[in-house]
Amino acid sequence: MAYSKQFLGLSFSLVSVILSGCGGGSNSCPSESFKLGDIEVDSCFDTRSAQTLKKDWEFFNDLNIEGAGGDEKRDFIVADIKNLLEIDGPLTHTNIEDWLFSRVNHIVPPNYNFKKVKSSDKSFRYENPTAIPHEDIMIKVEDIQDNQKEFREMGVLMMNIGGLVYLSGKKEGVLYEMELNSGKNVEIKSPRAGVIIPGSQFKDFTKAEAKQGDNKAIKILRLATLWHEARHSDGNGASLGLLHDKCPNDHPAKGEYICENKRNGPYHIGAKMMRLMGNICSDCTTAENELLDELYLDSLGRITFTDEDEKQLRETLATSEAFLEKGTKNDVPLTAEEIDDLTKKINESKEKLKELYPDPKPEGVN
Ligand SMILES: [Zn+2]
């Protein structure tokens, strides 16, 4: 999700490319719209990018998601994904796709003309109208329209533009509509509008693969990024968009909004999806597996509260609760001060856990 350059994640290579392709006129529109499962890929994609999306999706369809477990490590990843995506029962192609399809509806071409985002005449009331996360650094639709070239060159792989327009609209108190190249009009009435746009990094990779051959690690990164972006379609009020957080002072990207302090955010989902697909990629080469490890570590490097931190926090909570229980039953007599300390520790741990798991329920959805 992006409202300033800093928000845009997965930027391990920041080479800018001036985008080429159709100018939006129907005569120069090189591709028709098509579908990836339930996701509608808008028309006017350049042929190469359209091909990349299609091939990535074929690759995903061939993955044996149902056989993703098998040993302790793999079972752990499967459990993590199920937990993050709130999937009951076994992990299957269908439920993992359905999660994506309810959050991503359209992919527009990298050169989508932002002038096609228009304010609607319809009156619309935003849920929690004053609760806007990271309000101070958010950019407006108008800013994007005035700086289309710069916006496209930001060096990101993909962006949840529907979520960004929703946030901007909410801040401005305006309902926006996005006219797609196919002629369809999408009203941006919730973060679940689900419109994704590939960034310049997408084109860089596609171009590199055209020269060097397909790279399965990059395919997995692009696919995982769809699930990352899908997470930005969630949230309400303060949790709207499950936005990236500011990196702490001891982080190399100190002060930039490319970190994640939460435990259920887009970086977690993207990273775990990458790991899942990497584990079941039967014909990934050593070089591809090494690149996947690097990409996975890059994502983990943005997560400031680690698996280990959470384990410790939960242990502290459980131990404190057990002590307090023994104390209240008088098995181990406690002083009033000790009871106070334990109660404080329990409340703080519970509060922290709540903070780490912001509510993903999307606003504006009935
Ligand atoms: Zn993101």
Topology at a glance:
Blueprint (H helix, E strand, L loop, with lengths): L33 E3 L2 E3 L5 H16 L9 H13 L8 H9 L4 E2 L9 E3 L21 H6 L1 H5 L5 E3 H12 L3 E4 L5 E3 L7 E4 L1 H13 L3 H16 L34 H14 L6 H15 L6 H22 L7 H21 L10
Parallel strand pairs: 2-3, 3-8
Antiparallel strand pairs: 1-2, 4-6, 5-8, 6-7
The structure holds zinc ion.
The site of zinc ion has 6 residues, from loops.
Structure description:
It is a single chain. The chain has 366 residues and is of the alpha/beta class. The chain contains twelve helices and eight strands. Strands 1-2-3-8-5 form a five-stranded mixed β-sheet. A hairpin with a 5-residue loop joins strand 6 (176-179) and strand 7 (185-187). Residues 1-26 have low confidence and may be disordered. Zinc ion (ZN) binds at residues 1, 9, 228, 232, 244, 266.
Short description:
With 366 residues, the chain is α/β, with parallel strands linked by helices.
Count of alpha/pi helices: 12
Side-by-side strand order of the widest sheet? 1-2-3-8-5
Globular, elongated, flat, extended or rod-shaped: what is the shape?
Answer: globular
SSE pattern:
EEHHHEEHHEHEEEHHHHHH
Provide the descriptors you would attach to this structure in a database record.
2 domains; 3-stranded antiparallel beta sheet; 7% strand; 44% helix; single chain; globular; 5-stranded mixed beta sheet; disordered N terminus; 366 residues; binds zinc ion; alpha/beta
